[in-house]
Each structure stands twice: as C-alpha cells, then as structure tokens.
Design goal:
The chain has ten helices and ten strands. It is an alpha+beta fold. It folds into three domains: about 170 residues, Beta-Lactamase (2-Layer Sandwich); about 35 residues; about 110 residues, Beta-Lactamase.
Length: about 400
Amino acid sequence: MTEVSCLTSTVFPEKGLSILNTVLRRADNPADMGTCLTEEISALTGASCVLLIQCLCTPAVAAHRVVGVHPPHRRQWAESQAGTFLYEAVHQMPEAQQWCGEETTDISGLLQHEGFERSIIFPLNVGTYRVGAMLVLGLPGNDATDAVFELINNLSTIMALVLRNAILYEKQEQIIRERTAELEDKSERLAQELAERKQAERTLRENEERFRTLVSNIPVIVYRCACDEHWTMSYISNTVTAMTGYPASDFIGNRARSYLSVIHPDDREMVTQKIREGVAERHAYTIDYRIIAADGSMRNVYEKGQGIYSDNDQLLWLDGAIFDITERKRAEQELNRLNTELEQRVTDRTRELERRNHELEQMLRAFVGRELKMVELKEQIKALEQRTAGVTCSEDA
C-alpha cells in the first residue's frame, strides 16, 4: 500500500496532525512554514506541484505572493505571468474546486499545458477575508483524491489563520520600517539603516551599562516612570533595594508592587499633587516625604524630578532622583530637640537670674537703708556730743 492510499486508513489522523504541527511550529515564519508545508503535502499526495499562495490584494491592486512551492524548480513558473493569471482566477473562487482534465475552462487549459490534469485548489479564508490559497496540482490517478480533499479542506482554516497572522505581522513590520525611515535619511538603503540601528543599539547598551555602573556607585535612587496613578517604573536603580528592602525588579512595570505602595499613606496625596503641579507648570518638582521599608521601618526621602517631553510637546515620562535623608532628618530633629532644650534652659536660667537679681536688689535696698540709718545715727551722736561738750564748757566757766 502506498503512502497516498494510506490516507483512507487509520494513518489519516496521524498525517493530519503532522501537517498541523508543521503549520503551527512555523507560524511565525511564513516562508519556512510554506516550504515545509508544501513539501509534506507533495510527499503525502504524490502531487507534481504544490503551491501556497498569499493574497496581498487591496481594493485597488491585485497582488499575490508565493509563500511556498514544491518542488523548488517550479518557483520560476509559479512566479511567471501564467502563475499570476492562475492566482487571479483562484481569487474569484468562492470555495475549493477539483479539475480532472476534462474541463474546457481557461484554468483547466492552463493546468493541462503544464501537465497538471488532476488538481485541487483550496481558497484560504478567515471569515469573509481571502488570505491566500493552497494549490495541489498534478495528482496521480487513484482513488485518494477525496481523502486528499478532505484532509486539506479540514486544515485550510488553520492555514488561513496562519497566513492572516503573517499578513498582520508583515504589515506591522512595514509600518515600523516606514516610521523608522522617516527619522533617518529617506535615501539610505534599508541595509544601511539596519546596520546603523544595530550600531545605535550597541552604543545604547554600552551607554546603559556605563550609566548603570555609575548609578550603582551613587547612594541615590535614579528612576524613569510613567506619569500615571501608580508612577509605573520603566527603570529604577538597584539603590532602591538598600533604601526600601525590595529588589528593583519588583517595581519595573509594577511587577510585584508599585512605588506608590511604599510611600507613607499620609504623604501619597501630597506627593501626587506636587508632581502634578510640576508637570502642569513644566518645571522641576522637589518633595520631602516618607516611605515604609520592607521591614516596617520608616525612612525620609527627598525627591527631585521633572517631565520629559517629545518634540511635539507630548509628555513621555518622568525622570528623577530620590535621596535618603533619614539621617539628616534625624540630625535636624536632634538639633531641634537640643535647641528647644537649650532655649528652655536659657529661659529657666534667665528666670533664675531675674529672681536672684530681684533678691539682690531687695538686699541692696535693705543695705542702703541700713547705711543711711547708720549715717543718720552717727550725725545724731555727733550732734549730741557737741551739745554735751557745750554744756561742759559752760559749767567750767
């Protein structure tokens, strides 16, 4: 029993799975998928030629591309004017069709001219959108045609989806190339542009490595984040681990936690307001606030940042740095405490001095009063002595 005749036996599901595996494993590489798929179907069916065609038609332009052809030497015919005529005719077919060499249509004549009498053509559709076709040309004259038809017809939807994905993928790549080319000299070749991009990527990686090395030696958190409600980080230096106790990877894309989550709950609204004001007024913002580390301890930080804008004044992201000022805050608090204590001591000392000064003044007044009384007493004694002396002199006389 030949491989073709086996299609009607229990080998049918196995062959179908093999082809399905080929399609799915190479879904991201249309050319590779087309080569392997046409080769497998050719070997399975014994067809003289198998073509996988991708439809690139637009309302204004009819265009097709040969994704895979087996045997390879048939590619020249597949890409010839005759092949193009065949694809355009196939594009109008609403469903799969078979030719046995007895028809009198233009397609039948074209196939017979190439020696393809028994053939099956399968349009590949995704919904109402035609994405391509599978052409199995020159089948051997045996009873396996119906099995071939059923096998490929069952797989046609998956092949159509893969081709549709390839179309979307290539359109996306084309858009990327066009937009990239707009930033470069439009006259440069694509190969030159790619080479320059690779060089730019290498330079960027080297610069990033130097930047990371420099940043890792600075006790400051350097960040780049989105201006959203969570301050989603696209880059944050490893210094954040020493400051918060969480690895930097936790914050990238809010993978495990957002940076907002480590800000003290009482400070979050203030931080958000300050940043929003800075962005709105197009100037740098500076903020003092508290964060809560993984071990539950609280640290004081100082943040300075600013919005980064594109050439058309669109906000791209926020760049900034965060400094740990916990020790400075503690020093300030200790200094304030000492100043308060010193002021209190000065106040207490001043009151003590005032009290003693008051007592001294009272003592001084008492002393001065006593001295005055002593002087008065002395004068009285002196006056008395004078009177006594006068009386004595009178008696002697």
